[in-house]
Specification:
The complex is a heterodimer of chains A (about 140) and B (about 400).
Chain A: E1 7-8, H1 15-22, E2 26-31, E3 53-58, E4 61-70, H2 75-78, E5 83-90, E6 98-104, E7 116-123, E8 130-136
Parallel strand pairs in A: 6-8
Antiparallel strand pairs in A: 2-3, 4-5, 4-7, 5-6, 7-8
Chain B: E1 8-15, H1 26-41, E2 50-53, H2 66-73, E3 81-82, H3 87-100, E4 106-112, E5 130-131, H4 143-158, H5 162-177, H6 192-197, E6 200-202, E7 205-206, E8 216-224, H7 225-228, E9 236-245, H8 264-276, E10 285-288, H9 293-302, H10 311-316, H11 333-337, H12 344-356, E11 370-377, E12 383-390
Parallel strand pairs in B: 2-3, 2-4, 10-11
Antiparallel strand pairs in B: 1-8, 1-9, 4-8, 6-7, 9-12, 11-12
Classes of the chains: A mainly beta (about 140), B alpha/beta (about 400).
């Protein structure tokens, strides 16, 4: 089946992140000045405006912070039925690390705020690209 | 130094027909609204020397900017002030510009037709579009999805129910039934059960928890209070205003989601009430942005009419319904009147009409002297414009 969902435009600035996904690693910009993690990636640290940030691997584990089951949405998504969209809080908190994504492989009635999740990776068919989603996990969120 | 409270007035307002689908162009609606609002004021196109528009681009391919488009369209006129911001914020700054003499007649104009907010109304693409690396669209987000995620978290933190959220839609429809110009009023009242029984859009938000996805235009004219005295309508004075941006829309979810110190709406509201020298208790009528039921609940909290977590109780107590202590969205709001793409000005217009005492008698708030209008974006945390309005006693 042809992939018709939107795909990221990869630029020199964002390439390290997508290279990380290909290696099944979730990388977050960490400020070399104050050490803060900055998600979503931004040109300078939100805490101290230092421009130098290092792509740093994080656990990819956390809990579902909030979600919705989307019954109506872009047709490229609803063509496969309702889907879960939301935010995971990665365990590297308390620095705010709320990451947007789709939770897959979970019965929609069982999806709940606070459930343990982890970042999973999948290769996009017919594109030389790896993306991420959320999966249910067993760890304590 | 201070806000020029009462020195500038809304002197003309106009709403085109609002409809689920217009066959007319956005520009056609804009022009009708512009001419209509000026005629309401007793002014003409030749008076306009300041303008703001809700559009990111004009209809003309290659046009540099929609404000430059208007300068050219109005006869290559050297405009004195180019506005910006969410509708209520654009009006607040427009009032400052008029007061400072940058321009004498400022108009906010909106018209939208055709394009739809609901992504389900866009056909299935045949190939994968390329978007920005961090775009929400990679994950199939929608406006309903963002507010639904907010509602889900809100329910989780405060124990509010879907029934309580639904009451907002019930009240909006009630008001719409008293507004012959509203899109949904003629369909009659709805109940909480109707809302919960409507199809799920993005859990926990049902179809009737969501704004309309409609077309329409409007315009609002400001000029000096001194000049307003000689014009057609009772001047509705700009008493105070505020604007705020807090987060970059649709990239990130605020954390915490419901901080006691608030976000953009709190900041804009505090500024607007302070510059007006008006207390929240003095507000007779409100127009608060209600793109979803959860939005109004959060508006009430962030505006300071109740505490965080108590918005649904405030609605349940009937405060926001006609006859209550804070009649809100008496035209039916975005939920049952119209959400025409940038409906923030609609809230300003309804408050203006209430203060002029010119709405249908059944929905007229008796002796309304002071009102407030809020335009918000991104679940009250992202962006806001607030306008405090009043008429002479």
């Amino acid at each position: 089946m042809t992939w018709v969902r939107p795909l990221p435009t990869i630029t020199p600035e964002s390439a390290p992140f997508f290279d990380g996904l290909r290696e099944r690693r979730f990388l977050v910009p960490r400020c070399t000045g104050c050490g803060d993690l900055n998600w979503s990636p931004y040109p300078a640290c939100r805490s101290c405006l230092t421009r130098e940030q290092e792509w740093t691997e994080v656990s990819g584990e956390g809990e579902l912070h909030t979600f919705t089951v989307m019954h109506t949405g872009p047709r490229a998504f609803t063509a496969d039925g309702p889907y879960v969209w939301g935010f995971a809080r990665l365990r590297e908190s308390p620095r705010s690390l709320l990451v947007m994504g789709n939770l897959v492989g979970v019965d929609h009635d069982a999806v709940a705020i606070g459930m343990p999740v982890r970042i999973g990776y999948f290769d996009v068919p017919d594109h030389d690209l790896t993306l991420y989603h959320f999966e249910a996990a067993e760890h304590a969120g | 130094m201070g806000f020029p409270s009462g020195e500038v007035a809304i002197v003309g307002v106009y709403t085109t027909e609002q409809a689920l689908d217009h066959s007319r162009s956005g520009f056609d609606l804009e022009l009708e609204a512009l001419e209509g609002a000026l005629a309401d004021a007793g002014l003409g196109l030749a008076d306009v020397d300041g303008i703001a528009t809700t559009r990111p681009v004009s209809d003309v391919p290659g046009s540099y900017d929609p404000l430059y488009f208007w300068a050219e369209q109005l006869g290559r006129r050297p405009l004195g002030y180019l506005g910006s911001g969410l509708p209520a914020a654009a009006l607040g700054k427009g009032a400052l510009a008029v007061s400072a003499g940058l321009c004498s007649t400022f108009v906010l104009v909106h018209g939208k037709s055709g394009t739809k907010i609901n992504p389900a109304r866009t056909p299935l693409p045949t190939s994968a579009p390329r978007v920005g690396a961090w775009s929400e669209t990679i994950f199939g987000a929608s406006r309903a999805g963002w507010y639904a995620a907010w509602a889900q978290r809100y329910i989780h933190e405060f124990g509010v129910t879907s029934e309580q959220l639904a009451q907002v839609a019930v009240d909006a429809r009630h008001h719409a039934t008293l507004n012959p110009d509203s899109i949904m009023g003629h369909r009659g009242e709805i109940t909480v059960e109707d809302v919960l029984g409507s199809r799920m859009i993005a859990s926990p938000l049902h179809l009737l928890d969501c704004a309309l996805d409609s077309d329409g235009g409007y315009a609002i004219v400001l000029t000096t209070a001194e000049r307003a005295r000689d014009l057609r309508r009772k001047p509705v004075h700009v008493l105070g205003a505020g604007e705020s941006a807090h987060i970059d829309y649709y990239l990130n979810f605020p954390d915490p989601a419901f901080p006691p110190e608030g976000g953009a709406v709190r900041r804009a509201a505090d500024t607007a009430f302070a510059t007006a020298g008006v207390s929240r208790d003095a507000i007779d009528v409100a127009g608060l942005y209600d793109c979803f039921t959860i939005t109004l609940v959060r508006d009430l909290e962030e505006m300071g009419f109740c505490k965080v977590g108590e918005g649904a109780d405030f609605v349940a107590e009937g405060h926001t319904r006609l006859g209550g202590s804070l009649p809100t969205n008496t035209d039916g709001g975005c939920l049952s009147n119209s959400h025409n793409g940038h409906p923030g000005g609609m809230h300003v217009i309804e408050v203006t009409r209430q203060l002029r005492a010119e709405v249908t008698p059944q929905r007229q708030v008796p002796d309304a002297r002071t009102g407030v209008a809020l335009t918000q974006g991104m679940s009250v945390m992202g962006g806001a414009g607030v306008l405090v309005l009043g008429v002479d006693r």
